[in-house]
Amino acid sequence: MKAISLLIIIGIAATSCIRPRKPVYPATKKVDSIDIYFDTKIPDPYRWLENDTSDATAAWIEAQNKVTAKYLEAIPFHRKLLKRITTLSDYERIGLPVKKGNKYYFTKNNGLQNQNVMYIQDSLSNNPRIFLNPNRWSDDGTVSLSRISFSKNGKYAACGISRNGSDWQDLYIMDTTTGKFLDDHIQWVKFQEVAWDEKGFYYSAYDAPPKDKELSSVNGNSMIYYHKLKTPQAKDKPIYQNPYYPECNHSGHTSDDGRFLFINNGLLMKDLTQTDAPLVQLANAGYRYSPIGIIDNKIYIFTNYKAPKRRIMVADINSPTLKNWKELIPESDAVLSKAEIIGGKLFLTYNKDASDRAYVYNLNGKQLQEIKLPSLGTVFFCGEKEDKKCFFLFTSFTTPNTIYQYDIDKKEYTLYYAPKIKFNANDFVTEQIFFTSKDSVQIPMFLTYKKGLKKDGNNPVLLYGYGGFGLTLTPSFAIERIPFLENGGIYIQVNLRGGNEYGDSWHKAGVKMQKQNVFDDFISAAEYLIKEKYTNPNKIAITGASNGGLLVGACMTQRPKLFRVAVSQVGVMDMLRYHKFTIGASWSTDYGTSSDSKEMFDYLLSYSPLHNLKSGTRYPATLITTADHDDRVVPAHSFKFAATLQAENDGTNPTLIRIDHKAGHGFNKATTKLLKEQADVYAFIMYNLGMKMKN
To answer: Around Cβ 20, how many Cβ atoms within 10 Å?
Structure first.
């Protein structure tokens, strides 16, 4: 008995001593590929990795994944972390109820289902029944319902179906009464809302891509079509195209009564009650215009026209051009971020210092009420213009998506649904801090951590940011952060320039020739945290995805000694060639392109992560993640960056790339894949920050 016990002890001790070894990277061949920009020669030795369908690229992916998996699986607490994240994720959650026709619809996940299931109810008091279950569409959960749009009367639903995480969608039409799909099938659609009228719908599609290049070739010639139900796509009628901007994905939507079609190039309007009515240009491009409803012949428009922080304007349908618009609710100090008409009232969400405030106005522009939210956080309202009650979703860094029902007449709300998660939110606290960036601009950031934190300069920190395309980072909940927080980590979300936290000027301060401001803000955040004794350079991890992956790549190449760990997820890494793939050209409004001018080329070259890796430099421990069906930021960005970093760094810290299969940019990823990725990423971060998993 003693001998058996001794063997068990020895086995446990041996297991606990396993640690990741220094990776041995696969050899990556170089080619003599050179591009010339304004008489400047730029080598691109890993150009061959841009071919995402070649056998050579497939072999490279397999070899890299083996190295990465071996390293990650050797992290002592990797399995424990996966189990903890899985346990935390195993809770029932529902989406906002939506009323269409005389039915209610909502999504629900029992916990670990790969895809959310859509349910239908005859009324809120009736038992729900399954309407759509995407989990039945594939064995591995990689076919998803990317979006759904109901006809005005609720009789039909246009279902956007995505495969393997691709942004490409196939549209199928369901009869909501019978639950059966029609023969209608629409292809080559991306990011598209469907705009219904009585007999069919408007949608936008691209030209069909070349065979075997569906995930990498440039998407162009976006066209708005009209599809009549029960007819083939080949007979769809072209409605609108802008030949001057073929890379733009134009979209349209119809008014609630189905009378008008609006198109987003500036603002175009078409009267659908008149045969062959022309498209009327209401306002020119250069600003954003979003009609939110028509009541009593008045079009209510959410816009930034001469209002960098947004306002509400009104147009008469009999004289709808911009010169006749009237201001209803003027611009304020806070940014107007969302606007809906529900129950004959205007529900407006303002963003103040990167968190939401909610107000109700009447249609004459008078404020009726501020809806006091539970805490600093993010809110989304949902309802129809005739509803007496509506719903809103609230979330924060410590509050999972919680749904409330709001009574418009009583001006009060009650809890409708709160998920039950196996952690105590009261153990954690969130604070907001403002720090000074390099050029003396004040930048906000949120810090979330376990109560009792000591500012001893030794706390592990995970710094997250985005900083681009006018997107505002507001508080949100994420299960995968909990183990990091439980084990003493500080999660920090920085509101960088390039977003819309303070309106258009904040966005413009982080685009094109001002892009370096974004990186300076992120670097200054880290420096502030060190100065204030929250942490030190050996305890800081940085992470970001997509444009945020660019942020990570730029900051780790500019200040490699400031960070211990860098995780770039589906990042834009080659700033000289990004516009040559899929929808990349549409990002030029934020980035500019290498062909614009020598000045723009020089600026992009100065920060492009791929082109600023220097031989012999000790870079942070780096994990790069991408996926084989990412047709938004093509994986070649990550492939070339990983190959270059493995060749150029001094070899002290690991440089790994994780390439997921049958997955894309991250949208609607199967739960099993998502949990594995989260465990891999956080195990890498926590291990390389010297953390141990106590819980």
So the answer is: 19
CB 552 within 8 A of CB 566: yes
Please, what is the end-to-end C-alpha distance for the chain in angstroms? 31
Task: Match 């409330």 to its residue by tokens.
Answer: 404
DSSP state of 617: B
pLDDT digit string (tens) for 336-389? 999 999 999 999 999 999 999 999 999 999 999 999 999 999 999 999 999 999
Using one digit for the tens of pLDDT, what is the confidence trace for 634-671?
999 999 999 999 999 999 999 999 999 999 999 899 99
Most confident of 234-243, 268-277, 393-402: 393-402
Which pair of structure tokens corresponds to residue 473?
């980072």
Mean pLDDT of 394-405: 98
In whole angstroms, what is the distance from residue 361 CA to residue 355 CA? Answer: 20
Residue 458 class from Cβ within 10 Å (0-12 exposed, 13-18 middle, 19+ buried)? middle
Question: Strand order of the sheet with strand 389-395?
Answer: 378-382, 389-395, 402-407, 412-417
Q: What is this structure's pTM?
A: 0.96
CA distances from 136 to 106, 117, 130, 170 (A): 18, 10, 12, 17
**CA-to-CA dists, residue 598 to 321, 513, 577, angstroms:** 40, 12, 15
Mean pLDDT of the region 305-330: 98
Query: Which of 546, 568, 594, 638 is the catalytic position?
Result: 546
Euclidean distance between CA atoms 107 and 522, whole angstroms: 36
Confirm whether 546 is a catalytic residue. Answer: yes
- Encode 331-342 in three state secondary structure: CCCCEEEEEEEE
Q: Of the candidates 536, 333, 554, which has an alpha carbon nearest to the alpha carbon of residue 465?
A: 554
What is the torsion angle, in degrees rounded to the nearest 10, for the CA atoms of residue 517, residue 522, residue 523 and residue 524? 80
Cα–Cα distance measured from residue 512 to residue 87, given in angstroms and rounded to the nearest whole number: 44
At 358, phi and psi to the nearest 5?
A: -120, 140
Region of residue 19 (left: phi > 0; alpha: psi -120 to 50; beta: else): beta
Contact of 498 with 441, CB cutoff 8 Å? no
